[in-house]
Amino acid sequence: MTGNLKIKLQLYCGAEIAMGPGKADLLEAIAREGSISGAGRALGMSYRRAWLLVDTMNRCWDVPLVETAPGGNHGGGARLSDLGRSVLGRYRELQQRLEHSADCEPLKALASALREVPRASQKGE
Amino acid sequence: MTGNLKIKLQLYCGAEIAMGPGKADLLEAIAREGSISGAGRALGMSYRRAWLLVDTMNRCWDVPLVETAPGGNHGGGARLSDLGRSVLGRYRELQQRLEHSADCEPLKALASALREVPRASQKGE
Q1: In a domain, B27, yes or no
Q2: CB spacing of B5 vs A8 below 8 angstroms
C-alpha cells in the first residue's frame, strides 16, 4: 500500500495464479512456522485452504516451492525449497520496485482528487 | 498483462475501491456508449452492477466522475465529467508506467522458472 494505492501482482501459469499477494504471505508464514498447518493458523486460514494454495504453487513452477515431510493428520513439517526462497525474494523485489515507481506525478494528481471518506450512497435511486 | 504478470492497481477511499481495473474499463465504455446501460451491456455486466460501480466512483472523488441525465427506466444518457476523464487518463498512465517498470531482471528470473502449464493436481493427498 503506497498511500491510497494498492498494487497486486499476480503471476500466471496457464489459467492458474502461480504467485500473488496471498501465496507470498503463505510462503513467508511456512518459512517462519515450519508447517502448512501452523502457517494457515498464523494467517487465520483453514488447513484445507492453505494446502490448496501450496498445491497450486507446487504445480506451477519448475520444481515445488514447498517441501513437505510425511507425518500426522495434517502432514508433518514443511519448508521452502531453494526455488521457493528465490521466487519469494524476487516477487518481493518486484513489488518494491513497482511501489517505488508508483510514487510519481500521476499518482499524486489522483490522490489529490480523492475524498478522505466516501459520500453517503444514494441507494434510493 | 506483461507476459505472465498481471498488475492490478486499486485506489482506495476509506474502505471503498475508488478506482480499479473494472471501474476504469467501465468509464471507458461509458465514454464510448454514452450511457450506463449501454456500457454495462458492452461489458456483459448487469445494469445494477454497472450502476453500483458508478455510484461508488461518484462517492469517492471530489466531484462525480460520471454525469447522468434523467430519463427512461434505466436512466438517460451518461458521460464522463472533466474529473472523470482526468482520473481515467492518469490511472492508465500509472498502469503503463508500472508495466514498463515491471519489465526487469526479477520478473525475467521469475518467468524463467514458471512452467508453461501447471502439473496435474495431487488432489488425492
Answers
A1: yes
A2: no
Cβ-nearest to A93 among B86, B101, B106: B106
CATH of residue A47's domain is: 1.10.10.10
Residues A18, B13: Cα–Cα separation, whole Å: 30
Contact B33, B47 (CB under 8 A): no
Domain count across chain B: 1
Name the residue in chain B with its Cα closest to that of A111.
B11
Quote the Cα angle for A106-A89-A103, to 5°. 10
ipTM above 0.85 for this complex: yes
Contacts of A72 (CB under 8 A, 6+ apart): none
Sort out which chain A residues have CB atoms less than 8 A from B16's CB and list them. 118
Q: What's the pTM value of the predicted model, to 2 decimals?
A: 0.89
For residue A84, being part of any structural domain is answered with yes
Contact B5 A9 (CB under 8 A): yes
Mean of pLDDT values over B64-89:
89
